[in-house]
Design a protein that fits this description.
The protein is an alpha/beta fold and 279 residues long. The protein contains eleven helices and ten strands.
Length: 279
Amino acid sequence: HAKAAGRNNYQFFTQKMNLAAAHFELESSLRSALALQQFELHFQPIINMGTRKLHSLEVLLRWRRPATGLVMPDQFIPIIEDNGLIVPIGEWVIRRACEQSMEWRRQGLRPVPLAVNLSPRQFMHKGLVPSIRRILDETGIEPSLLEFEITETALMQHGDQTLEILDQINAMGIRLSIDDFGTGYSSLAYLKRFPVKKIKIDRAFVKDLEHSAEDRAIVSAIVALSDSLQLSVVAEGVETEGHYYLLQRQGCQFAQGYLFSKPVPAETAVHLLEQVPVT
Ligand code: C2E
Ligand code: CA
Ligand code: CA
Ligand code: CA
């Protein structure tokens, strides 16, 4: 009996050791990933629901890890958010997105806004605003072609500083949206104080829209309130024509989801841009 328990403890211990070792390995690979140019950007269309045409692209980070393949952000963003690597990596994302936009422009494609995610840690980092300024200067991108998505949780965490940072970003001409709306603890009235132009309704409220009267009520309330605060609304996770129909009927302006496209690499995103008429 005692022996068996000892063996179980031992197994438990080695399991934990293996997990810790795997985590350590992941973390040290992440430390060199930026220098080894293993990160890449993918792009997912955001559609104007009125015209069903491309409005903008969300920029989503991918890690091409040798021997593993393409690693999705939920596998590594929490780790780099935790150890601070998100600051240099996040800065690289902004720069790379701006460079990509300029490349498309040089190819004669009509540039659409690119929406870049900012993590809470990045958002509170002192160097953020100066580094954005530097990137705008060095790439020459039109600031109106850049948007930042920030979660409401990140906004609520940093008190007075938040408004100051948002005002500075807004003053540069970059638009701000609230990401994953409804999953945090903010209220729309509170958001009115921030220079935010857009909110993104989290997929959690969209996925059961066809079957849940409750979710329909929540979405229609968010749309109605955003209307009165003159905010635009993007619905995330639009996967079916049913979602599209219900969201459009409720007055939602923009949609993003697998119904149109999964996030795709730059070479594929070009074809989405080619469909946008040059104005
Ligand atoms: P997010 O900002 O909410 O991004 C939307 C996520 O939903 C993306 O996952 C996208 O692929 C997925 N998605 C879009 N449409 C659909 C759909 O119709 N159905 C389903 N099931 N999923 C859909 P992804 O690319 O895996 O990114 C996950 C999260 O990682 C993002 O959530 C964002 O929080 C974070 N992330 C990604 N790139 C970056 C980045 O460059 N910086 C930071 N700080 N976070 C990032
Ligand atoms: Ca986002
Ligand atoms: Ca989101
Ligand atoms: Ca989300």
